[in-house]
Structure formats: C-alpha cells, structure tokens
Amino acid sequence: QVQHLTLMSMELHARTRRDLEPDPEFDPICALFYCISSDTTIIDTDGTQLTGTIVVSRE
C-alpha cells in the first residue's frame, strides 16, 4: 500500500579545531551527505532512493 511517505536523512561534516566540539561560528561545513527515500518512484529518477554529496572547496 502506498502512503506517499518521503524521508530525508542528512549528515554534515565540519572541520573542527583540535579536540573541540564543532562550533558553527568558527568551524566551517566541509561536506553534506543526504539520502531521500520514498515509497513511490522519485521524480526524475528510476527508483525510490536518491543519495548525494555536496562538498565545499576550501579556496
């Protein structure tokens, strides 16, 4: 049975300073990883799952 349910999972990777916890004021985000899952076919794909990565260049 289709419930038209879509889930998104996301994980951020931040470059931290030494052994400190990430602080958004000082530590930049370097990458974002995501996964979108649906119980129906996702538009513009052939399946029910879409994964990807966004990487920020340090220039």
From TrEMBL:
GO cellular component term, pick one: nucleus
What is one GO biological process annotated to this record? double-strand break repair via homologous recombination
Q: TM segments?
A: none
Output the superkingdom of the source species.
Eukaryota
Gene Ontology MF annotations: DNA-directed DNA polymerase activity; nucleic acid binding
Give the InterPro entries listed for this entry: PolZ_Rev3, RNaseH_sf
PANTHER family per UniProt: DNA POLYMERASE ZETA CATALYTIC SUBUNIT
Protein name per Swiss-Prot or TrEMBL: (spotted green pufferfish) hypothetical protein
What is the native source organism of this protein?
Answer: Tetraodon nigroviridis (Spotted green pufferfish)
